[in-house]
């Protein structure tokens, strides 16, 4: 996102840099271990961290446990409603994440953790986004402590060792991608700075607030997501042993209410709400805003055949005018191949409405999504018929 520095770093890269708080037996303080954590080999964004111990150091290698997603292949191709309010609290902050939809570009899931994970965790091969529907706490990371609150997107780049600490019960929408989570290219100038017309600025993105260097020894468990599974390790030191770091790669939060929504004389299309981009998908924020002000405006979305896109919408708060029978915590899936739009009666009802209090997170993927058996458990089959009016059949929106 932007250059940031915390703690102590030497004046130049790749030079001798010794632990400022520790004198060695030969009179010299031990050298710190420099780690370049970067994307795309050495061509993408990177940060440089200075550790007390080698980040390669492991005391024991534990089990590798493959991740298995039980697939649900529905017998019919229809619009779907997934009511996550039917999901039970389960697991911890890592293993409690349960995937609902996925393809090779992204996994979309929910997490209602019963407890914090006691082990440290790192996604070795993918970026993660946690949208905090409910809850507050702190993400403790090698880059420092990152406080979070309700309606934050927490973006955690691969390679970040972290652990979540909860202050309140949690309810999350979760994303994992083997690609990179970024702000949309079209919001940035050629130097990477966000443009004036972007719906957010660098000030809205919160880096870790405080770097704590842990010097304690003793056994610490680490779980790393790699190669479609979780590899366990045991360390003999605390993994948050970083004395300082700087660079462009680090976890951050962005609160959805800091997204400045666009309104127009006539309807603004979904790309106006785009917040993040990834390979073959986008994440959008539908926030409270003024609605289209032309006297003849239709203030709800027009029907659209997103023939090359699958639309997953998670309802966070407020009332979503274009959907009937959808409550907070529900997910609608409008798959490719089928047009969708407001249910009958809603367009007429919305004419003249000046503002909306809807709050929703949308993920559009360009490649088809597979469903898991959790989608089947939470599926409301009546949604597919929610556009049907047995008594009419003549008008679409009356
Ligand atoms: Fe749509």
How would you explain this protein's 3D organization?
The protein is mostly beta strands. Helices cover 3% and strands 37% of the residues. The strands form five sheets. It has a nine-stranded antiparallel sheet. Strands 4-18-17-9-14-11-12 form a seven-stranded mixed sheet, with no helix packed on it. A hairpin with a 2-residue loop joins strand 17 and strand 18 (229-237). The longest helix is centred in the last third of the chain and has 5 residues, at 346-350. The radius of gyration is 23 Å and the shape is globular. The chain starts with a strand and ends in a 21-residue tail after the last helix. The mean pLDDT is 95. Residues 301, 304, 311, 334, 340 line the site of fe (ii) ion (FE2).
Produce the secondary structure layout.
Elements: E1 4-7, E2 33-38, E3 46-51, E4 60-66, E5 71-72, E6 80-83, E7 97-102, E8 107-111, E9 120-123, E10 127-134, E11 137-141, E12 144-148, E13 152-156, E14 161-166, E15 171-177, E16 205-206, E17 217-226, E18 229-237, E19 242-247, E20 252-255, E21 274-278, E22 281-286, E23 289-290, E24 310-317, E25 330-334, H1 346-350, E26 355-356, E27 359-365, E28 370-372, H2 373-377
Parallel strand pairs: 9-17
Antiparallel strand pairs: 1-19, 2-3, 3-19, 4-18, 5-28, 6-25, 7-8, 7-28, 8-15, 9-14, 10-13, 10-15, 11-12, 11-14, 13-20, 16-20, 17-18, 21-22, 22-27, 23-26, 24-25, 24-27
């Amino acid at each position: 996102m932007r250059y940031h520095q915390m703690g102590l770093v030497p004046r130049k890269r790749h030079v001798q840099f010794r632990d400022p708080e520790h004198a060695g037996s030969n009179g010299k303080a031990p050298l710190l271990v420099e780690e370049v954590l970067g994307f795309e080999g050495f061509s993408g964004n990177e940060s440089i961290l200075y550790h007390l111990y080698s980040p390669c150091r492991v005391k024991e290698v534990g089990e590798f446990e493959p991740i298995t997603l039980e697939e649900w292949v529905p017998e019919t191709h229809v619009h779907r409603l997934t009511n996550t309010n039917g999901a039970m609290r389960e697991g911890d902050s890592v293993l409690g994440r349960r995937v609902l939809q996925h393809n090779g570009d992204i996994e979309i899931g929910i997490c209602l953790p019963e407890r914090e994970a006691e082990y440290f965790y790192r996604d070795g091969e993918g970026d993660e986004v946690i949208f905090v529907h409910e809850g507050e706490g702190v993400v403790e990371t090698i880059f420092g402590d990152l406080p979070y609150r309700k309606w934050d997107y927490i973006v955690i780049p691969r390679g970040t060792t972290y652990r979540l600490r909860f202050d309140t019960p949690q309810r999350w929408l979760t994303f994992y991608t083997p690609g990179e989570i970024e702000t949309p290219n079209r919001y940035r100038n050629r130097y990477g700075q966000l443009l004036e017309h972007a719906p957010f600025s660098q000030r809205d993105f919160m880096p870790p607030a405080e770097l704590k260097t842990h010097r304690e020894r003793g056994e610490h468990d680490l779980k790393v997501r790699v190669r479609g599974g979780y590899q366990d390790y045991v360390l003999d030191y605390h993994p948050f042993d970083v004395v300082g770091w700087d660079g462009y790669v680090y976890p951050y939060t962005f609160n959805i209410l800091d997204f400045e929504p666009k309104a127009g004389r006539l309807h603004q299309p979904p790309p106006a709400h785009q917040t993040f981009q990834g390979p073959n998908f986008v994440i959008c924020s539908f926030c409270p805003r003024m609605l289209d002000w032309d006297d003849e405006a239709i203030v709800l979305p027009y029907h659209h055949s997103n023939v090359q896109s699958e639309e997953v919408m998670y309802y966070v708060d407020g009332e979503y005018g274009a959907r009937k029978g959808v409550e907070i915590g529900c997910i609608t899936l409008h798959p490719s191949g089928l047009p969708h739009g407001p249910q009958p009666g809603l367009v007429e009802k919305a004419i003249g409405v000046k503002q909306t209090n809807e709050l929703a997170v949308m993920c559009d993927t360009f490649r088809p999504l597979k469903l898991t058996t959790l989608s089947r458990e939470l599926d409301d089959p009546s949604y597919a018929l929610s556009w049907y009016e047995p008594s009419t059949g003549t008008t679409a929106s009356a």
